[in-house]
Amino acid sequence: MANNYSLKNLGVTIFTINNKLNKMKRILFLFLFLISVHHQSSAQNYKAQFNELIKGNKDSTALKKVLHDWKASKPDDAELYVAFYNYYVLESRVDLIALERTPKGEESLKMIGTDSTNKGEVAYINDGTYYKPEYLNVGFAYIDTGIRKFPSRLDMWFGKVYMFGEIKDYKSFTNELIKVVEYSAKIDNRWTWTDNEPLKDPKNYLLGSLQDYIVQLYNEGDVQANNINKLAGICCKYYPKRVEFLSDYSISFIMRGDFKGALKPLLDAAAIAPEDAIVLNNIAFCYYKNGDKTNAIKYYELAVKFGDDRQKEQANEKLSELRKK
Q1: Hey, where are the domains in the chain?
Q2: Is the whole model's pTM more than 0.85, yes or no?
Q3: Which one-letter DSSP state was computed for residue 126?
Q4: Edge-to-edge, what's the strand order for the sheet holding 93-100?
């Protein structure tokens, strides 16, 4: 294969991997948070049977039989909907490899052309994942039913959000998380998890997870500025004293070049946490971009006063630049 590609007109060449064992090992890691391995006390332990089949090479026929029997015996079991969701997500998943110009992660395989048409040119074999929508949409339908029946099951909501992230549907990703925030306010953050067990410290778990999801959007680049704005904005509405959400909200304006719009949430954050050097540096930066030298110097000086060594160094560099002007 190394002698048969031309990088000059390289698009993406995709090959399907049919290694079910490797596929299942990777999927088990990804969906572990949705599957409990604890045994239940019922005579027919459908969940345990399902888990055992999932842990081995996937036997689709056996999995479907367990799900059919489970549904007939316990149609209102919350874990049944989680199992159906996982089943259809697994059915939808196809592992791929692609020949591309740039590496993606440490496991990319470097290839160097050796024939006369591409000698010395470099390509990388990268792995990836594709989800067949005809199966995935059935999974979404099951988890939506589970959420309607058991709306306090945060693992169901987050399992759905996870897959929206996997398929890069960040509009749906954001909208689902907004629903989570709004519903959380209705139930005063009283969330449950697998087997309908109450979640320990549910408010802080939720807020920490929301912050992680906002970081995930941020890592996708400026194209996600509007989604960050919507999600961080709703977080600020319901949790107005959380500095991290005010900072996230401000970042969504900065990503769009709206430095004036970024200032209000930053100043609100500074009123709550006046010694937070990250907030102070960001305020100074926004004033700097708005051409307000006086306030930029003021807040960079505060960042020097309260920041760690790295933050002080960054602020001092900006102060030196501003004082030369």
Answers
A1: 7-150, 152-241
A2: no
A3: E
A4: 13-16, 93-100, 122-131, 109-112
